[in-house]
Amino acid sequence: MKRLLVNLFVGWILFVFSNASAFSSELEEQCGKTDDFNVCILAAVDLIHGSREGQGYSDAYFTKDLDYGPAANAIEASNKKPNTMCVAAVSETLITALNIYYNNTKDTKPFDDLPAARWNGWSARDIRDYMWENRGSHSAGYAFDKFGIGQKLDFPDLRPGDFLSFDRGNNSGHSVIFISYLDKEYNELKNFSSEVAGFKYYSSQGSGVAGFAYRWAFFTGSDGKGVCSSPDTHPSKFRDCFGGGVQKHYVANRGGRVNMPQKWHVKESSEQLVATLEAVLTPVIEQQFATQLGNVADLVSKNFSFGLTKKFDIGKGSGPIASLPGILKDKKDFQDLATSSSKQRELVQSPAIKGDILKAVQAEIDRQVPGRLDPKFLKEE
User: Fold this and answer.
1) pTM
2) 318: alpha, beta or left? (left if phi > 0; alpha if psi -120 to 50)
């Protein structure tokens, strides 16, 4: 009898794992064959859950150095691997999904559009900085929209495999892969409705199983249907209670979805941002140049009789200062420029200075725009 029970138990374990493996394999096989990249995200969740679950949590990124399409170990993990934090976890999930997509299709477009350097850097043109919710970003969806690889979504519009950031209302937040809506009995709901009391997600967190794991999140108050104020009836499903509700800022407009790579428009998003930045930056930099010219003119005019122009040798300066000797002929010219803001503004519009302003605007745009400095874009422009 004992041997029979053991055999039944072993058989059950093999059945569960074989079916889970078959489901995961089915998702992996479908990745790239449909017009829905969420299939690839869910395949990545299954792959990670089967091989990287519960490897620890800390303020670190990536469980290991990650392949990126045809490039092995192209995305570097921190020195605390395999520990990883939540924003790094959802980034790792996306990168893993792109690798599954590449293995199935051999399509290099996503890796050409968004090179590995954009995941390794922390500049204004690196997607990692936006995934980490820096530079005004408040979610992965914001980063996807900014870089032209996806879009922002509101909470009621989420589908399995979407991304979500949320605040708990206690000075802590989270970034996760959305799996499903939940009713108050922990049942998974396909669509948003009045029955929704929370949601199931996948990410890396410190409590419970530290590292990658599933969680069941519920709203507090009436939106959570009283789940969080009741005894925990599902101890095997780690409950995550947080403040707010479905229409409040805790989750509102903080979802995101990645498009199929054929629909990525990284270059178009870059060009749109360039046009916006040009309109915003040009008057700002013109004013900076005008002020700079006025300050230099004031310094020179006050010391003009002592031959400071030669000592200062402003003709060897850079930017607008280098152009001054060819424009201003005597001490009075410098004095007028130093005391007249209208003359300063007029001067920055002159052909001699305008070129310097355009260069300064472009330099600032190159610093800020995602991918602007990539050789791919420089060749196409």
Assistant:
1) 0.71
2) beta
